[in-house]
Amino acid sequence: MAYAVLGRTGMTVSRFALGTMMFGAAGNPDHDDCVRIIHAALDRGINFVDTADMYSGGESEVIVGKALRGRRDDVILATKGHFALEPGLNRSGNSRRHLVRAVDASLTRLGTDWIDLYQVHRPDSDTDLEETLGVLTELVRAGKIRAFGCSTFPAHEIVESQRVAEARGLMRFRTEQPPYNILARGAERDVLPVAERWGMGVLTWSPLAFGFLTGRYRQGAIPAEREGRAALRPAWFDPADPTTTRKLDAVERLIPIADGLGTSLPALAAAFPLAHRAVTSVILGPRTMPQLESLLEALGVELDEVVLDRIDEIVLPGTDVYAPNAAFDVPRLADPRRRRRVGPLR
Questions:
Q1: Active site residue: 3, 55, 217, 322, which one?
Q2: Across residues 294-315, what is the average pLDDT?
Q3: Which UniProt key words apply to this protein (predicted)?
Q4: Architecture of the domain defined by 3-338
C-alpha cells in the first residue's frame, strides 16, 4: 500500500480508501460480514475509512463503529453530513443548527470521541458559506472534528469558500470529494486544478462508474437482476437510453486494455484516478469480500503514458460520458424559480 499526505492536513492516508456506502440495508445488511470486509481492508494497509450519516440511514456509521473498536487510533476516519435522515423542517443542509446535531449524532453512531475528517456532503444554496465554515471551525476547536472538507462542490463554490475563510479568519475546507472515473472525467476541467491550486486533498468517489466498469454489464448482456448500486438506480441501466449505449461502447474498448495489462477492468478503473496528480486517495466501495479483493488488484497496476493515451482516445480528458451527479439535482437547475425571471424588467 502506498500513502500520501491528505492535502495540508498533516494526516497521512492510504492511496486507496475504504468507502462504506454499501454497508447496511442499501447494500450488505450482514453487519458481521461488513466488519470482516473492513478488517480485511485494514489488514491490507488501508488506513482511511470514509462513510456518511445518510448511508442506510446511519446504519453504515454503526457498522464502521463496530469494526473500529480497538483499532480506532490507527485509522483516519471520515464521515459526511448534509442530507436528511428523517422527515421534518431543518433536518438537512449546511446550517449551524443542522451540522451541530449531525456531528453529535455521527459521533454517537461511530462510537468515537472525534472525527478526523468531516465533510459537507453537498452544497447548500440556502445557507451562507460563512455560516457553514463558522460552525465547522467551532467544531474543530471543540475537538469533535480534526479537519473538514466538502464533497461534490462545483469549482466556483470551492474558490468562494476559500475566499470567505480567508476574509473572515475562519478555517477552510481542506479536502474535496468529487466523482471521478474513466467515464466521468469532468472534474479534470476545473475541480481538480482548483483543489490542487488551494492545496486541498482530493478523495474521489465512484471509480467503477456506478458498476459499469466492473465488466459485468456488456453490450447485449445487461443482467435483468441487479444488485448493489445498480439496484439503487435501475434507470441508469436502461438499454434503450443512449447514455447507456455510450457507456457500454466505452467498456468494450476498455476491456482489451485491461487484458493487455494482465489485470481486470475493475482494477484498471480503480487505478486510473490515481494517475491524476491532484488525487490523493481513491474511495473503493465494495459490498462483498470478493469485490474488495478484485478492487485491491489495482495495487499492482501501473498505468504508463501509452495506456493513459489509449484511455484518452476512448474518453476525452475533461469530458463525461454520463452525468456522475445526476442522482442529486442542482437546485438552481431543478427549480424554475431559481433560473427564470418572470414578468417585465423593472
A1: 55
A2: 95
A3: Oxidoreductase
A4: Alpha-Beta Barrel (3.20)
